[in-house]
């Protein structure tokens, strides 16, 4: 017997916080009455309605999971876009918009899974991983929940690193590696370049360790990274991917 489709309702959300993260990215906190919370890795649809009735909808990963009516997003501006420029430059506390979700059940990390986790991000693809890292740090305070994490994050230049201070905060269960494709910080040990197999290889996070792998970023980045990972021997079924691009 076929299951009936579950309809996800739209919620009116109010901007209650906004702060810049980089020259093109901004963190937004929304209050969304009726929103039931989300799992790390899920996303929401966000809808804006113009005065003339025109509507534009985009999907955004959640930067925080939890069981409450708070929604945390990080939006990176897409030049010429219909939605992201408003969210990055114009949205203010008190403004209202609509969200629908949470959505997605495949690209999700569960905090009771003890398997090592390898996260591979391209640019703003780090956003769903922020939710996973924050959930892990919260779950890590509970007995028996100490899944080791390794994050490899590729960005153009140091100024494009989203929430780097939080990611680099001391955490014995997290290894973070930054890859710069165009401009590296002074004295950085490796020259700028694309992600390589060396960046994705670390003791305890290999194919034989039962590692759960998540890759998120622009389509080209995701395809290249996934190819490197499977080439290293990670089973395709354990490499979960999520990609994005301009509308």
UniProtKB/TrEMBL annotation:
Residues 8-109 form the FAD-binding FR-type domain. It holds the Pfam family FAD_binding_6. This is Ferredoxin-NADP reductase. PROSITE patterns: FAD_FR. It comes from the Bacteria. Keywords: 2Fe-2S, Iron, Iron-sulfur, Metal-binding. Its cofactor is FAD. GO terms for molecular function: 2 iron, 2 sulfur cluster binding; oxidoreductase activity. SUPFAM superfamilies: Ferredoxin reductase-like, C-terminal NADP-linked domain, Riboflavin synthase domain-like. It comes from Krasilnikoviella flava. PANTHER family: NADH OXIDOREDUCTASE HCR, PROTEIN RFBI.
